């Protein structure tokens, strides 16, 4: 659910020179909600909100619901107050992922294999190698939109440009159910008519810093030197990125089959809780889910992160790098407990405490720094090499392998009977 700003004046004919405009950004409109309307035609024309329960947040909302001021990450209870007559539905992520897989396989992949999928409902496409057959990027975009609508009864918006930045900004301003092509010669003009938040990656914090320097639009941003931008951002890389973006430039290639960055799991408690046992038990279940997903996908993780959400809906995250990459919940879980205590400013030896320092609404964890399991090097430390008696030991690496074997044995059980049916004590 895109919340990027749009400008009505941007949704117009920018010209017909498609030379060099071989990057498409495809974004399916209100994807989760649109899929629900597609399988429940009786909801057509009504506000549909995905996310139910007093403790849940809005995952998606169709355009009818957005007219009521409903946005993603809004508390579902507030959304219901804003739109009491709306259709509120639970998240059916398995269905959404399956439909996404079908659309990518049955439609997008019929054009080219140069596809960079960035989410279940969004991708970049490099069509430079497909023009011999398809003749023009516009023809490809039109065919995709027609085929998705005809087969799946949902709409998608397409941006066409010479690079990923402008293509994405074009699809944003084409929404809903539109297509916008920006010729190479007009990239800078198009970008510079946008507000700062129109550039992907500029969030509230950076916007405030730029505002403090008298920069209120992309046009203002384009007047700044790289040196000034570096003083604002504190980063040479960030400064260069902003300098290029303000001129409609982007040298990032479309990267097919981009590797996953992380695998995570999180859950919201029925009521806010300070109960240590409840929170750690939740983290343990999340570790089980994440470790199982890592093994299924053939990854191991080098980093672990804990995420907490508090009653005021604020977030906190904290992570660390592991000594050795892993796909074992029994290794991830103790790290999560340690991170939890650190986030609560509680000493490491307080894992057995009854109560946390502050109440928690949601807890979760993610595993990042993913590498293919076959490419990972499991390097034991000196402590791993010897047991307490000074004898050679298989150490934590071998222990981890035994834990992995036990957890893997449960994967088949969970696959058949559900993730929550069995857990190892860790």
Give an account of the 3D structure.
There is one protein chain. Strands 5-6-1-7-8 form a five-stranded mixed β-sheet. Strands 9, 10, 11, 12 and 13 form a five-stranded antiparallel β-sheet that branches. With 426 residues, the protein is α+β, with helices and mostly antiparallel strands. It is globular and about 65 Å long. Helix content is 39%, strand content 20%. The chain has helices at 31-39, 63-66, 76-82, 93-106, 131-134, 137-152, 164-174, 187-192, 204-212, 218-221, 226-233, 236-245, 276-297, 329-343, 382-385, 395-417, and strands spanning 23-28, 48-50, 60-61, 87-89, 115-119, 122-126, 156-161, 179-181, 262-275, 299-309, 315-326, 355-368, 371-372.
Q: How would the blueprint of this fold be written?
A:
Elements: E1 23-28, H1 31-39, E2 48-50, E3 60-61, H2 63-66, H3 76-82, E4 87-89, H4 93-106, E5 115-119, E6 122-126, H5 131-134, H6 137-152, E7 156-161, H7 164-174, E8 179-181, H8 187-192, H9 204-212, H10 218-221, H11 226-233, H12 236-245, E9 262-275, H13 276-297, E10 299-309, E11 315-326, H14 329-343, E12 355-368, E13 371-372, H15 382-385, H16 395-417
Parallel strand pairs: 2-4, 7-8
Antiparallel strand pairs: 1-6, 1-7, 2-3, 5-6, 9-12, 10-11, 10-12, 10-13
Helix pairs in contact: 11-12, 13-14
GO biological process, one term: DNA repair
Subunit structure: Monomer.
Cofactor: Mg(2+)
